[in-house]
Design brief:
One of its GO terms (molecular function) is DNA binding. This protein is mainly alpha-helical. The protein folds into two domains: 63 residues, Orthogonal Bundle (Arc Repressor Mutant, subunit A), CATH 1.10.10.10; 35 residues. Helix content is 64%, strand content 10%. Helix 2 crosses helix 3 and helix 4 packs across helix 5. The chain starts with 5 loop residues before the first helix and ends with a helix.
Length: 122
């Protein structure tokens, strides 16, 4: 995901896959990074993700349980929005995307745009 480091993205993937709030130890046990990570490293990453608004947390006893603040699809959409905003020419980026879109992507966009027009008119 745009704006996330490699370890942050790996932690988010664990949280999205599990679809339930997890403690630091549970995240650590499920992480597959190819490296041995310290508990405190994962705790720091989760704290940073909380500070950045990527995860929410709730205290359970002495430990927090973490869960994504938004779905994977919502996070991807936010990333696209960030890329468009930082591009300097969002119209050109959208035009290039539209020209390179697959038939399936084009169909999904055609289906979504009429809904956008209806909800904007309300």
């Amino acid at each position: 995901m745009h704006g996330l480091g490699e370890l942050e993205a790996a932690v988010m993937n664990v949280l999205w896959q599990e679809q339930q709030p997890l403690k630091v130890r549970e995240v650590l046990d499920l992480l597959e990074t190819g490296k041995k990570l310290a508990y405190t490293t994962v705790m720091t990453v989760l704290d940073n993700l909380h500070r950045k608004g990527w995860v929410t947390r709730e205290l359970e006893g002495k430990a927090y349980r973490y869960e994504p603040a938004l779905s994977r699809a919502e996070a991807a959409a936010r990333t696209v929005r960030d890329v468009l905003a930082s591009s300097g020419d969002p119209e050109a980026v959208l035009m290039h995307f539209a020209q390179s879109a697959t038939e399936r992507e084009s169909e999904l966009l055609r289906q979504a745009l009429p809904r956008k027009k209806r909800s904007s008119a309300s």
